[in-house]
Design goal:
Elements (H helix, E strand, L loop, with lengths): L3 H12 L3 H20 L7 E7 H5 L11 E9 L10 H13 L8 E3 L4 E5 L3 E10 L5 E5 L4 E4 L2 H14 L4 H14 L8 H11 L2 H6 L7 H17 L23 H23 L3 H12 L13 H4 L20
Parallel strand pairs: 2-5
Antiparallel strand pairs: 1-2, 3-4, 4-5, 5-6, 6-7
C-alpha cells in the first residue's frame, strides 16, 4: 500500500528542514553578506549572492540528531585582472574579510577547496563560494587546491531541476529528500555525494514515461517507486562507474566526486531499496505494509491508524515493464 498521507507527514515532521531553521539560515546568510559587503577591501568587489546546492534546489533535510545542518551560498564577485593567474586569491580574500570582522573573527572559519566555511556553535555551518563571470564569458567558481577555475552553471542546474520536478508532478524534490534521509539517517549508500544523488535521480525522470504510463509520478510513494526502480535498472546495466555529466550543460562531469568502490556500494544499496520499496508498495495488508515502510525508513515513519476507507492508500501503480521482474529482485537486507 502507498500510505501517501503517512509520507506527507513523514516529510513534514521528520525529513524536511523546519521553517524555523530555514529562517535562521536566511538571517545568518544575510548578516554574513552584509559584513562582507561592508568590508573595506572585499566590499567593493561584492556584486550579489545566490543560494547554492540543496538550499537552492529545496532538497535540504534535517540533520542527524544534534548534528549541524549546512548550506552554501554563492558570493558573486568582480573579476580582478591582477588575480587572473591565481584564482585561489578570491578564497583568501573572503577568508581575510571574515578574519577582520569583529564577530566572525571569533567564530571557527577556514578555507576549503571551493569555499570558506563559517561555523556556528552546535547548530550549522555556512559555505561561502566565490563566484565570478569572467570577461572571457566563462561562469566559474574557484578550486583552491589546484589554483584553477571550475566552470559552473547554477541557473542551468536550477532550470533542469525545475523541469524534472514539473514532469514528476512536484514529487522529485520529495523523493530526493527521502533518499537523502536513507543515506544520512539510515546509513545507506554512505559516501555518495548529494550532487551525484540528485543528478542520478533527476535524470531518471522521463517525460516520455509520464505520458505513456499516466500516474507513474502521481504521488510521493508512487514517484519513489518509479524513480528508484528506474534508477536500479539503469545501475544494474553499469557494473563500472559511469560518467555523470552536469545536467546544467556546463560541460563538466561529477566523476571526481566518487570512486568505483563508492559506486559499487551505491549500486548494491539501490538494488536492495528498489526491492524493499516494491514490497511495501504492493503489500495488500495495511498493517504489514506500514511495518515494511517503517523497516525501510525507521521508526520515525508514522504508524498511522487504519483509515475507515483506504481507496487512496490501496490504489496501485504497476509499471508494465516491471511487473514480471519485481518478485525476482535480490540484495542484502536493509
Amino acid at each position: 500500500m502507498q500510505h501517501s498521507k503517512g509520507f506527507e507527514t513523514f516529510l513534514r515532521d521528520t525529513v524536511n528542514l523546519s521553517q524555523a531553521k530555514l529562517n535562521i539560515l536566511d538571517n545568518r546568510v544575510d548578516a554574513i553578506y552584509s559584513a562582507l559587503k561592508a568590508d573595506p577591501e572585499l566590499g567593493p568587489l561584492v556584486l550579489g549572492k545566490k543560494r547554492q546546492g540543496s538550499w537552492a534546489q529545496r532538497t535540504i533535510i534535517n540533520p542527524v540528531g544534534e548534528s549541524e545542518f549546512d548550506a552554501d551560498f554563492m558570493l558573486h564577485l568582480s573579476e580582478v585582472s591582477e588575480w587572473a593567474n591565481s584564482p585561489k586569491t578570491y578564497i583568501e580574500k573572503v577568508y581575510a574579510a571574515l578574519h577582520r570582522h569583529s564577530v566572525y573573527s571569533d567564530m571557527p572559519h577556514h578555507r576549503k577547496c571551493r569555499c570558506v566555511q563559517l561555523r556556528y556553535a552546535n547548530s550549522m555551518h555556512v559555505d561561502i563560494v566565490p563566484h565570478l563571470h569572467l570577461k572571457d564569458g566563462r561562469e566559474v567558481i574557484v578550486n583552491r587546491d589546484e589554483n584553477r577555475w571550475e566552470t559552473t552553471n547554477p541557473a542551468g542546474f536550477t532550470a533542469w531541476m525545475q523541469k524534472k520536478d514539473n514532469i514528476a508532478d512536484g514529487n522529485l524534490r520529495k523523493v530526493i529528500r527521502l533518499m537523502k534521509y536513507l543515506r544520512n539517517h539510515r546509513n545507506s549508500f554512505t559516501g555518495t555525494r548529494s550532487i551525484i544523488l540528485t543528478t542520478l535521480l533527476g535524470e531518471r525522470v522521463s517525460e516520455t514515461k509520464a505520458v505513456s504510463e499516466p500516474g507513474c509520478y502521481g504521488n510521493v510513494p508512487t514517484a519513489l517507486l518509479t524513480i528508484i526502480e528506474d534508477l536500479d535498472t539503469w545501475l544494474q546495466g553499469r557494473p563500472f562507474k559511469p560518467s555523470i555529466p552536469d545536467p546544467s550543460g556546463s560541460g563538466v562531469t561529477f566523476d571526481h566526486r566518487w570512486d568505483q568502490e563508492t559506486y559499487a556500494y551505491f549500486r548494491d544499496r539501490i538494488h536492495t531499496h528498489a526491492r524493499q520499496i516494491r514490497e511495501a508498495y504492493d503489500e495488500p495488508d495495511y498493517d504489514r505494509s506500514v511495518r515494511l515502510w517503517r523497516s525501510l525508513f525507521g521508526g520515525a515513519f508514522p504508524n498511522v491508524p487504519r483509515p475507515t476507507t483506504s481507496v487512496s492508500s490501496t490504489a496501485k501503480f504497476t509499471s508494465p515493464l516491471l511487473i514480471t521482474t519485481s518478485t525476482s529482485r535480490t540484495g542484502r537486507a536493509g
